[in-house]
Amino acid sequence: MQPGDENLVALARNGDHKAFEELVERHKQKAYRIAFDFARDREEAKDLSQEAFLRAYTHLGNFDGRSGFYTWFYRILVNVCLDYKRRKKRTFAEEFNEAVESQVEPSYVSQKPPSPDQQVLAGQLSRKVGAALESLPPKQRTAFILRNNQGLSIKEIAEMMQTAEGTVKVHLHRAVTALRQSLAEFA
Amino acid sequence: MQHDKSAGVACTQWEEDLVLHYYGELRGSERAAVEDHMRGCQPCRFYLKELESILPLTVKPDEPPQAFWDDYSREMRRKLTEMKERKSWWQSLASFAQPWAIPVSATAFVAILALTLTLGKGFWRSKEVPQDDEVFMEILPAAENLEFFKTMEVLDAMDFLEDMGSPVKGSA
User: Fold this and answer.
1) Residue A149 DSSP class
2) Looking at A24, A55, A89, which one is the last position of a domain?
3) What is the span of the domain harbouring residue A156?
């Protein structure tokens, strides 16, 4: 029987480094996907999620067990992603252009090459979505990404954001309204 | 019901519930109330359809290959090892900072400060005491003034003698 996250945390706090590596293995894919939703770039998502693991490792002493490791760690991860967005000076348009130039747009490197028209439309859409998400206030963006992209429940998001469920619903509603207005042409 | 006649604009008071309905966050009576409302409200039905077509577009799928995950784990282990090494270096440094070391250091500091002030006080005071030459230079003008007054006293005495030796005015 596999030990629970909390047991692994206890072991890691007592100096068992393998226990923390096991936690990384368990949560790396989910962590990467959340980071990818914020960064929309593979390498950046990898760096951000790894940075979150390192911060969690450094601050394991602060984990009091009141929430699950999952909630505690994803709170760190979301903060790392939001900090990164704040630090970042470049616009999404620049990021997108770079990604296209270096051909690291994973969603469009599919088995069947898209037609030029599809590529243009996909490019427009991706640019527009990126800009629309970028323009959302951090709390709205977080609530939206965690619900829309990660499928977390309102309750889980509220716990992660350390706020009331009603507040999360308001953030989500406002985010959806803003995105709907920005992306109406693609409906 | 208050809503705009244009398509895609839902009733204001139902909008948030429609968003929650889209995400499957409504249960029981709340869900039934929204569905009941939508049956009679075309703009709200249209709004929900619009959400169904727009919101999935915001998700950018990404499925990295296995090689990516292997690399991820390898890189993570390396970063953790580096961090552990840094941590152990700091820990060895911090081991000097035992609980008893803080009051001992503070006492030593106070003692050194007290000694410095005590010994330093004499040093600074000796600097403040004027040198012999300086004392002489200060006394000299005073002595000169004294000499002047002495001269004046002699002159007064001479005038007095002259007055005594001369015939009384008006006696001739």
Assistant:
1) I
2) A89
3) 136-187
Q: Where are the domains of chain B?
A: 12-58, 64-96
The pTM (predicted TM-score) of the whole model is 0.67
Among the partner-chain residues A25, A169, A183, the one whose CB lies closest to the CB of B73 is A25
Model ipTM value: 0.77
* A84 part of a folded domain: yes
Give the closest-approach CA distance of A174 to chain B in angstroms: 9
Query: Who among A21, A58, A170 is closest to B77 (CB)?
Result: A21
Nearest to B49 by CA among B16, B5, B9: B9
In a shared domain, residues A82 and A144: no
Select from B56, B79, B61 the least CA-distant residue to A42: B61
In angstroms, the CA A40 to CA A83 distance is 15
Domain limit, last residue, from A89, A122, A147: A89
Q: Is residue A126 part of a domain?
A: no
pLDDT digits 0-9 by tens, B142-172: 666 666 666 666 667 666 667 666 554 444 3
Tokens of B119: 């010994």
- Is A128 part of a structural domain of the chain? no
Q: Residue B14 in contact with residue B37, Cβ under 8 Å? A: yes
Kindly state the tokens that stand for A50.
């790894």
The CATH number of whichever domain residue A46 belongs to comes to 1.10.1740.10
Neighbours of B125 (CB within 10 A): 9
Nearest-CA distance A67 → chain B (Å): 22
Rounded to an integer, what distance in angstroms lies between the CA atom of residue B84 and that of residue B79? 9
What is d(CA B27, CA B48) in angstroms, rounded to the nearest whole number? 17
CATH number at residue A160: 1.10.10.10
Q: Give yes or no for a contact between A126 and B60, defined as CB atoms under 8 angstroms apart.
A: yes
Number of structural domains found in chain A: 2
**Following CA atoms B116, B119, B120, B121 in sequence, which dihedral angle do they give, to the nearest 10 degrees?**
120
